[in-house]
Write a structure and sequence with these properties.
With 180 residues, this protein is an alpha+beta fold. The protein is 32% helix and 40% strand.
Amino acid sequence: MVVFSLVIVSVDATITMVSARTTGLSESTQAIDQLQIAEETITRDVHTVYTWSSAPTASSLDFTASLNNGSPTVAITLTGTTSKTLTIVTNGATTQTLTNLDPASTFTVNTSASWTSSGGTSEGPFYYSVGVTLTMDSPRVSAPRPTKTTVSDPTIIVNNVEYQCASAWSSAPGTGSSPC
């Protein structure tokens, strides 16, 4: 009886340990999947920027996009200092939230341009390229072997920048040809 009890206890302990590891791996995989989906969403949306609502910063991208035959307003923000939260809001409704991002997560403005019309009107800046880097600790920092998972697109080309420039030129034309 004692030997049988010891065998049952050891089998139960093994099953519990395997179950805990499987659950941890599943949670880690889900977190990484969410991280990749967020980065792909940001890349897709930034590619279609129609106009910027405000200048992109390391923690905020606010713009109107040209998506699916519509022009939704999109606000993508990173908030927090020791642990960041990514929030994507489209037309005033939160469409995606990702928590527990590493403080290294950031947006970067790679390229911008502006010009002055011959009438003296300053136009721009027009942002040609924005980068995104999202980093997540996986598993938790207190885990025996923590690893960081980073997804990054350092150069997201804003495909509609020429339209932005042309629109600004036509709304405040000077003399001569458009600089676009």
